[in-house]
Amino acid sequence: MLHIMNTSHNKQLVLLRHGQSTWNRDNRFTGWTDVPLSDQGHDEAVEAGRWLSEQDVQVDIAYTSVLQRAIKTLWIALEESDQMWVPVNRSWRLNERHYGALQGENKSEMADRVGAEQVHLWRRSFDVRPPSLERNDPRYPGRDRRYAGLGASDIPLAESLKDTIDRILPYWHETIAPAFNQANTILVVAHGNTLRALVKHLEHVSDEEIPLLNIPTSVPIVYQLNSALCPLNEVHTRFEPAVEA
Ligand SMILES: O=C(O)[C@H](O)COP(=O)(O)O
Predict the structure, then answer these.
(1) From CA 211, how far away is CA 36, in angstroms rounded?
(2) What residues does substrate bind to (predicted)?
(3) 185 — phi, psi (to 5°)?
(4) Helix (H, G, I), strand (E, B), or coil: what is residue 189?
(5) ipTM of predicted assembly, 2 dp
(6) Residues facing residue 88 across a β-bridge
(7) How confident is residue 235, by pLDDT bands cut at 50, 70 and 90?
(8) Are 122 and 47 a contacting pair, CB within 8 Å?
(9) Is 209 a catalytic residue?
(10) How do residues 213-222 score in pLDDT, each as one tens digit?
(11) How far is ligand 1, taken at its centre, from the CA of residue 109, in Å?
(12) How many Å lie between the centroid of ligand 1 and the Cα of residue 193?
């Protein structure tokens, strides 16, 4: 596992994808479906928390989505590192990319039906949207109480990575980045594609290169940031291009 130098004068951003969920385990497209952590995912979150502790990562403020796999990973990591008192903010803007009508489908069965290339395009391309939900579909998030405050145009029917970037960046610019005025270390626990979106933005990863970026579950990604919140280190080159849950 990665080791970091604790430089108290630099701003530090720690990104963490949630531990394995039951649908990661079962190889199902998940998106905004609110599935729990698997037993393995729980153990991965404990490991991430131990790592925070061993590296003496002193979190000042934490951000997560409104999906339980991320919320629970954050809880466990804060509990394990004895930082449960840290202020936590949740936002739908940090939710996983909405996988539209693919949500619930098995990824390998879908590849058998439509071809591996099409599934790869849906999963990793920059701007290809998966097939959309209809508003009368039981999976449409508009009838879920947690999204009651959102306008219809904010509630996705399906999102490409580009759409996900468009919804996450306002939250980065308006909420997370300004919090560095008070905080030295910010922890963001989110999802594979919302973190791809953030890494793409922070490291200026090109549209052509982004399909190669795959973020593993529960492996902390640590950026040291300068005063303009530009990363002083690169992390995206560390990741395997493999497309796995
Ligand atoms: O929503 C999902 O299915 C996963 O969290 C991410 O899936 P992906 O690796 O297929 O983008």
Answers:
(1) 27
(2) 17-24, 30-31, 69, 96-99, 107, 123-124, 192-193
(3) -125, 125
(4) strand
(5) 0.96
(6) 62
(7) confident
(8) no
(9) no
(10) 999 999 999 9
(11) 15
(12) 7
- Probe target for ligand 1 pocket from 24, 29, 35, 102, with the most ligand atoms within 8 Å of CB: 29
Is 18 assigned a catalytic role?
Answer: yes
As given in the structure block, the two tokens for residue 125 are 């391309």
User: Whose Cα sits closest to atom 2 in ligand 1?
Assistant: 30
Architecture of domain 11-98+159-238: 3-Layer(aba) Sandwich (3.40)
Taking the C-alpha atoms of residue 106 and residue 23, their distance in angstroms, rounded to an integer, is: 9
pLDDT in tens, 40-86: 999 999 999 999 999 999 999 999 999 999 999 999 999 999 999 99
**Ligand 1 centroid to residue 85 C-alpha, Å:** 30
Structure tokens given for 153 = 């145009």
Q: Detail the residues annotated as belonging to a binding site.
A: 17-24, 30-31, 69, 96-99, 107, 123-124, 192-193
Amino acid at the residue 126: F
8 Å CB contact between 25 and 48: no
Domain regions of the chain by residue span: 11-98+159-238
With a CB cutoff of 8 Å and minimum separation 6, the contacts of 119 are 107, 110, 111
Q: Report the pocket of ligand 1 as residue ranges, CB < 6 Å.
A: 29-31, 96, 99, 123, 191-193, 245
Helix (H) or strand (E) holding 122: helix 116-124
Q: Are 216 and 132 in contact (CB under 8 A)?
A: no
In terms of residues, how long is the chain?
245
Q: Which of 44, 47, 80, 96 is catalytic?
A: 96
